[in-house]
Design goal:
Length: 164
């Protein structure tokens, strides 16, 4: 992974370590409810260094304010999760995390990236669309045991390669 990224407000993005998992778990449950990952699931994700990359956003005091992960398999990448703690939202942390994931995907040779996002999350949808993701379709009943649909999205990474 590339060097750590830093936002102007003192937020740093660093590679996720097992120690970060405990810090994010209370937020994971609060933010993702029925779709929350377990601590063990995160540990298993971190163990797959060949295909997966996870990062955390830390504020200037070292407190966790966000996390994100991507899987890269050949020319395709998939954003697996992006979370920003509620008290830190609307400060550009999600964009910083996403940019770090996309940079990692480009470094690993990905040519396109996919993701799913809840249809009832307009802030996330706007962030992804503003970053150049296009809507592909709807996955009916993807979240909350069939109660909430997901929007599938895709972004080509050729432009990302040119910028780096």
């Amino acid at each position: 992974m590339t060097a750590d990224a830093t936002a102007g407000d003192g937020v740093s993005v660093v590679a996720m370590l097992p120690v970060h998992i405990d810090a994010l778990m209370c937020f994971e449950r609060e933010m993702f409810g029925a779709e929350a990952w377990s601590a063990q699931a995160y540990r298993e994700e971190l163990a797959d260094r060949d295909h997966r990359s996870y990062v955390t956003a830390l504020d200037s005091s070292g407190a966790l304010v966000g996390w994100a992960g991507v899987r890269v398999l050949g020319a395709d990448a998939e954003v697996l999760t992006v979370g920003v703690v509620p008290s830190a939202r609307r400060a550009g942390i999600g964009r910083l995390l996403l940019g770090t994931l996309l940079a990692h995907a480009v470094e690993r040779g990905a040519e396109q990236v996919f993701l799913e996002v809840r249809v009832d999350n307009p802030a996330a949808l706007a962030m992804y669309e503003n970053d150049g993701f296009a809507r592909l379709g709807i996955r009916r009943g993807y979240y909350e045991n069939g109660r909430v649909d997901a929007v599938t999205m895709r972004k080509g990474l050729v432009d990302e390669r040119i910028r780096r």
